[in-house]
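Predict fold of EamA family transporter; 318 aa.
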Amino acid sequence: MTRYRNVVLFVLLAAAWGSAFMAIKAGLGDPSAPGPFFETPVLFAAVRYDVAGVLMLAYAVVVLDDPLPRTRRQVAEVAVGATFLIAAYHAFLFVGELNTTSAAAATIVSLSPVLTTAIARGLLPSERLDLAGLVGLLLGLVGAVVIADPFGQTNLLSANVVGKLLVFAATLSFAFGSVLTRRLDSDLDIEAMEAWSMLGGALLMHAVSFALGEPVASVELTTGALLALGYLSVVASALGFLVYFDLLDRLGPVEINLVSYVAPVFAAAAGYLFLSETIDGTTVVGFLVIVVGFVLLKRDAIRAEVRSVRGGPTHGDD
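Predicted 3D structure, encoded as tokens:
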């Protein structure tokens, strides 16, 4: 029964996070059909985490004895999370999605586990990548290039290519922030860390939005805008992270990483159903190449996980 529960929650999480890319695109729109937040993508991201951060903090206050970061290390971990996991990741992602599809954005973001592993290995001398790991990293990057399809463009700096590069920058920011928070390894509860990171990241994005001169007056809070914002804040962020925490405890980091590879399927389906987005062949090919790279990088951990599921002895950790 527990196994079925985990499978259902896993699929629901992948659906929530995958369809979030469609909700972002719906709020932003594109040059041919601008959405309510078309001129204010960073403000859109900031308001999303204003709401999500308050909800997460309320949850942390209820379930934790002390939700406040007390030590310098805890404060540093929150600062890293706010800067890289929330502010940089979402600012780049929301701006990038102005000129790319939901499926392409979700597929590029699925490169995150590959980049996280590579960065972690690069920062830890005792865990250098071997030949197979290097090939896996290279394949992941090749997959991202295939999706960006720069050679199929007459202008390498076209909006389509730049949009995908910005999504890649978002993914790199998230991977780098993940490694830094893991290295800091403070004893701050994950619920508190996420809540304060969300609020701090939202504040940083408001500052960036102001610095960019985004026209707040241009935002029309239509029913569609409120639905997109509510879905991103409540379903994808607040509820999504609660499910993620639960599955992380039950499944471990290897299996939960697989959400990144199921989410693009839901992103493509949601984009097609709600926004009539098409799924091109380069996105599919790039996704498959990234998956192969992930398998090569995490082969030892995947092997150990399979043995664990079968009830056999496990060894190794990637």
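Residues 2-310 form one domain.
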